[in-house]
Amino acid sequence: MATLAAVVGIGQTRYKSRRGDVSIAGLVREAAVNALKDADLGWDDIDAVIIGKAPDMFEGVVMPEIYLTDALGCNGKPMLRVHTAGSVGGSTALVAASHVQSGMFKRVLTVTFEKQSESNAMWALSTPQPFSVHLNAGAGGYFAPIIREYMRRSKAPYDVGIKVAVKDRLHGARNPLSHLQLPKITMQEVEESMMLWDPIRFLEACPSSDGACAMVIAAEELVAQSPKPPAWIRGVAMRSEPTMYAGREEVSPQAGRDCAADVYRQAGISDPRKDLDCAEVYVPFSWYEPMWLENLGFAPQGEGWKLTMSGATSLDDGGDIPWNCSGGVLSSNPIGASGMIRFAEAARQVRGDAGNHQVEGAKLALGHAYGGGAQFFAMWVVGAEKP
Amino acid sequence: MNDQVEDITGIETPVYLHYHFTAGSAPARFLRRIKEGVLTGQRCPRCRNVYIPPRGSCPACGIPTEDEVVLPDKATVQSFTVVAIPIPNNPIKPPFVIANLVLDGANISFIHLMSECDNSEVHIGQRVQAVWKPVDEWTYAMDNIRYFRPIDEPDVPVDRIGTLATTGLET
Amino acid sequence: MKDVAIVAFSQSDCLAQAGAANEVELIMPQLQAVFQQVGLNNAQDVDFVCSGSCDYLQGAAFAFVAGVDALGAVPPIKESHVEMDAAWALYESILKIRMGHAESALVYGFGRASSGNLRTVLSQQLDPYYLAPLWIDSISLAALQARMLLDRGLVTERDMAEVVARCRRNALNNPHARLSGEISIETLLAEPGLVAPLRKSDCAPVADGAAAMIICTVEQAREWAVPFALISGIDHRIETHNLGMRDLCDSVSTRLAAGTAGVAQGPVEVAELYAPFSHQEIILSRALGLGADTEINPSGGAMAGNLMMASGLSRIGEVFRRIVSGDISRGVAHATSGPCLQHNLVAVLESA
To answer: Residue C101 to residues A50, A175, C98, C105, C106: CA-CA distances in angstroms?
Structure first.
């Protein structure tokens, strides 16, 4: 009984390590203006604004919606700020969609961002906590042991991660917005890059980017007001589980599997590899592609790496289920926005609007985001056709 | 005279905020004991799993953990990574090993350093024991344990990690 | 539009300092209280969970993640979080119910403001380029606002003291209050200024604690066979961040939200207003168009104890309590966020 909603406008900023030409307000406004232009709408056409970003500590601005309301044309309107750790870009899109799907709003603007150059994310992620051992491990230090366990269980060859690192950067080279532009990247170059947290090498890890991503989501009755084809929202789901508990399956978290099952059920998907045309999946460390291929049901347990090695997820190799044609998190990573970029890029695909990284004839796409200790998941399925 | 004056496009605005931090009641009980050199876990009354360091609740059941269980300082490597990035104010030099270790008698792992080992020989299932700092350096912190080092005991099979009693792997 | 009902509410005592209690230990008793009120066990028994908190109060990123440990989130649950007062977590939950993806939701908020120096921490909410480096604390900003009100003859210091005295007296009936008691206007006015024209008594006493609420569809409330109050209207609006560009003596966003929420569509027997400062209660009551028939802050409001990140939810909870107890049949609750009432939420509650 949810109101049908669609993405009618998408706006992003060029992702770079440092946007020294704009303030935080300028950065989010740029994405918002791009989204409005894409939807052929003005500020007055927006009923509410929903923003999201990663921890406030990244930029040191407490509750930034308070400061950003003017930049986002939100004065006199409702404003909400979502924060669900790394999945925030995705969950913000879901909360924004719920504004319309609940029937309470007709058209909303949603923006996510991170201006990492004005912050110290490594510090914020690893602030010494009193009474705890200070390991300065960061995200890599947390995920590397889990990846190692996946490698042990699946007996995957050592270079699966390397292959993903190359594939996603080659995809990114097709995307003018991508932070990393590495059209000449090779397997050898990745293999020889410095090992940071074994088995994660420098070139197998995501960059740190400044950037913002915005979308306009409208109710069915208003969709025709925007000239470009819409991306109909066919399924929305989120799941959380505790960071740690006895017997927790960390390699393929239950929350991810449950979230995928929920969103597939809503979208009428029974075989994700066949039913979906492409996917934008949150892969910040290369090995997470084979791991998520299994977690999301694209490959049987233990065989995600085979799918990767076969080239099935590569646009350049003509794979049947391209993943992260935009370049993914491995090519651009403004943390608070990364989840929404996945959702937005999935929408671009089914609108036929993904430029040089378009999957020919894409009709149904998955957007995926995760955060925390791989414990928060947000996913959506968007389609060119109404359900 | 300097002809080239760069536009100012940003300013550094340091933010210093002081906080009083509390670990919480359950962690505080754990910390008082670790100051005495004793490792204690807390057991969930419903699922019976032992958590160390305890945080006050069993995350799976959502209820307070109360029962204290004294644990030995021997553990098993559940997973690990070799880190190239140094730790500020810590003499340990990269590349070093950080590992998720499960103490005998506990059912979850915690993260800590490993040392006195050949990084390439660290493996899942390996047995380790705590190397404590000198007694006079002990405080309310997990890093009373400087690191864990490998000990000469048989490896724990992967499917048994996290299920051992306080007495370790039975022979 | 689907009706949403409140079926349970609980709030911790407002403590000057929660002492050695971490997030999990603060939240769990309130969650257990609301589950018990309805006859549930843990988060598995509701369809959605949403919380409100602010990392900077505790000085640790991801404070809310710790809260997930209090829920019993195995198997995984549908859960979300706003970095705002839990009144906005309630709002997000209402959207979830109205789109048909949940029949019930658990909402909670918590804060340990005592860990840091709150008024200084809140200065970092301000524009990071122009204002935050000036470290203008939240009390000073409120004092600016109070000064404007006084200078324009819109309130007197006596009016402000009357708000304080009334709230403290009302708080005598509030078992969770941090500050309560009879105090004369003269005693209050004799206090020296803290940040003039604000006296210490004009500032709501900040408290550590947590609050929780369960909401659901009317059908679900009937299935659970528990008394409930209807949320017949809810809306929130934000104003410009630039203090010089809005009228600090009025709350335009509160008036807007009140209009959409339908405040004037019936009698307002009780209004619980989240006013962190005494003069702000007056601004809010005028913006809501409240008359002499409305009892304002019978719980004592935030003046009894300001649970950061949960006070807004508590105002809604206090109105809920008075409806299900039969004291009233219609009331208004308000929540605020940001400097000088920048962002305001208004909810109208009615008996079934």
So the answer is: 19, 35, 8, 10, 14
What's this model's pTM, rounded to 2 decimal places?
Answer: 0.96
CA–CA gap between residue C116 and residue C139 (Å, rounded): 15
Phi, psi values for residue A355, rounded to 5°: 50, -130
Cα dist. B23→B110, B112, C20 in Å?
A: 16, 18, 7
Beta bridge partners of A345: none
In DSSP terms, C51 is beta-bridged to C81, C108
Please answer yes or no on whether A80 and C1 come within 8 Å at the CB atom: no
C22 vs B55, B59, B61: nearest CB: B55
Band (pLDDT 50/70/90 cuts) for residue B5 is confident
DSSP string, A43-98: GGG--EEEEE-S-GGGTT-SSTHHHHTTTTT-TTB-EEEE-BTBTHHHHHHHHHHH
CA proximity to C106, closest of C83, C77, C84: C77
Whether the CB of B129 is below 8 Å from some CB of chain C: the reply is no
Of A21, A131, A137, the CB nearest to B140: A131
Give percent of chain C with pLDDT exceeding 70: 100
Cis peptide preceding A300, ω within 30 of 0: no
Best mutation site among A118, A131, A210 for testing chain B: the one with the most B CBs within 10 Å? A131
Q: Nearest-CA residue of chain C relative to A119?
A: C128
Tell if the CB–CB gap between C132 and A80 is shorter than 8 Å.
no
pLDDT digits (tens, 9 = 90+) for C219-264: 999 999 999 999 999 999 999 999 999 999 999 999 999 999 999 9
**Region of residue B162 (left: phi > 0; alpha: psi -120 to 50; beta: else):** left
Residues of chain A whose pLDDT is less than 50?
A: none
Q: C165-217: per-residue pLDDT in tens?
A: 999 999 999 999 999 999 999 999 999 999 999 999 999 999 999 999 999 99
pLDDT for residue C121 is more than 80: yes
What's the mean pLDDT in B11-40? 91
Tell me whether residues A81 and C82 touch, CB distance under 8 A.
yes
Residue pointed to by tokens 């309107």: A77
Residue in chain C closest to B59 (alpha carbons) equals C69
- CB neighbours of B12 closer than 8 A, spacing ≥ 6? none
Q: Which chain A residue shows the shortest CA-CA distance from B85?
A: A196
